[in-house]
Amino acid sequence: MDATRALEAWRVLRIQSELVDGIERLGDIGPAVTLYGSARLGEESPYYQSAEALAERFSRVGLNVLTGGGPGIMEGANRGAFGKGACSIGLNIQLPFEESANRYQDLAINFRYFFVRKLMFVKHAVGFVVFPGGFGTLDELFEALTLVQTGKIKPFPIVLFGSDYWSGLIDWLRDRMLAEGCISPGDLDLMQVTDSVDEAFSIVHKAVAARENRRRDNLPEHM
User: Fold this and answer.
1) Would you indicate the residue range of the signal peptide (predicted)?
2) Domains defined for the chain, CATH in brackets
3) Assign residue 82 a region: left if phi > 0, alpha if psi is -120 to 50, beta otherwise?
């Protein structure tokens, strides 16, 4: 085996190890709400404050809170959930332009590969709440939408928090993507937009209460 093939083989083993570690460490957590958002919006941001308040609501009713573990909106969500009853979880990834993991995590897991980390975000999800963010937030949002749309994971509510921030995207999806036949009308209904912590909490909490299957894993049973 030449050096290049040997490196590829080791990469496969690292991926496998990271996947197994994530599955095992999250295996007993139960339902979790995933909160996404920018790492660049600190505690002076109203979005940070809303993420903190919302995560506390979830934690107090026993719903674990799952974030990317970094600063900004992620810190706000972990901070709100931390010590409030349920588990505050961070799926951390080292990036050159971001600070280290925030300190409000009951369970912190470190990832090297984005795609393994993103699987962990959706695997236990009973709801996504997506706050304003950048490329990474949009990547995670559209991956979740695609997985729900195609039936690769069980449906769960996807809430966009901040109507002013998200309105341009929603308009474009309707006026371009839907109008040109690239998505179906019902696909837009996969997302709900709100500016209210109470409404975001209610959307997710009602969906959780209505779930017939209380399995820990959100993947379809045939997979």
Assistant:
1) none
2) 15-207 (3.40.50.450)
3) beta
Distances (CA, A) of 32 to 27, 63, 139, 173, 174: 12, 6, 20, 28, 30
Alpha-carbon distances, residue 211 vs 30, 83, 201 (angstroms)? 13, 26, 16
The pTM for the full model equals 0.90
- List per-residue pLDDT tens for the chain, 223 residues long: 576 776 788 888 888 988 888 889 998 888 899 999 999 999 999 999 999 999 999 999 999 999 999 999 999 999 999 999 999 999 998 776 656 789 999 999 999 888 999 999 998 889 999 999 999 999 999 999 999 999 998 899 999 999 999 999 999 999 999 999 999 999 999 999 999 999 999 999 999 988 765 555 665 554 4
Task: Find all residues with CB under 8 Å of 54, minimum gap 6, and list them.
Answer: 35, 77, 80, 129, 161, 197, 200, 201
Angle between helices 114-123 and 135-149 (to 10 degrees): 50
